[in-house]
């Protein structure tokens, strides 16, 4: 619950959105994708969690934006913009979920699994 409280009290100037970005593609070595996600977390410290498998990865983070469309557009570009510098595979986006802070809290109150874990944790599925 400490993570939930920390998110609730973020002091930011604009609306915050929780983003879950899911990618998939040709299978790669698990070590390679793990290291790529760790580098992404280093390059973009907003990363909350990264989960991965041989042919799939998921990243969750908070982002600021005027509306869900703006944040979704940014999320759709994230992987490609960091592919080379983070050593990420050439996978494509197969899912994106963007929700406002209140919706995220409502789900958390209902006990939905929201992927709460240590910040910048990178773990296998």
Give the structure's gist in a few sentences.
The protein has 125 residues and is α+β, with helices and mostly antiparallel strands. The chain has helices spanning 2-8, 30-43, 68-86, 101-109; strands spanning 16-24, 47-52, 56-64, 92-100, 121-124. The longest helix has 19 residues, at 68-86.
Radius of gyration: 14 Å
Average pLDDT taken over every residue? 86
- How far is the N terminus from the C terminus? 22 Å
CATH top level assignment: Alpha Beta
Low-confidence stretches: none
What is the element string, with H for helices and E for strands?
Answer: HEHEEHEHE
- Total domain count: 1
Please count the beta strands (DSSP E, at least 2 residues each). 5
Shape: globular
Q: What topology, given as strand order, has the largest sheet?
A: 4-1-3-2-5
By CATH, the topology is Alpha-Beta Plaits
Helix percentage range: 25-40%
CATH architectural designation = 2-Layer Sandwich
Major pleated sheet: 5 strands, mixed
**Share in β-strands:** 25-35%
**Structural class, judged by helices and strands?**
alpha+beta
Number of helical regions: 4
């Amino acid at each position: 619950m400490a993570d939930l409280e920390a998110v609730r009290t973020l002091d930011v100037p604009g609306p915050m959105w929780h983003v879950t970005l899911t990618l998939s593609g040709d299978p790669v070595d698990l070590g390679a994708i793990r290291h790529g996600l760790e580098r992404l977390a280093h390059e973009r410290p907003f990363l909350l969690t990264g989960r991965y498998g041989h042919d799939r990865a998921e990243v969750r983070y908070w982002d600021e934006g005027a509306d869900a469309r703006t944040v979704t557009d940014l999320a759709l570009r994230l992987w490609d913009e960091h592919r080379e510098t983070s050593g990420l595979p050439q996978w494509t986006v197969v899912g994106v979920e963007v929700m406002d802070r209140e919706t995220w809290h409502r789900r958390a109150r209902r006990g939905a699994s929201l992927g709460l874990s240590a910040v910048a944790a990178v773990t296998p599925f």
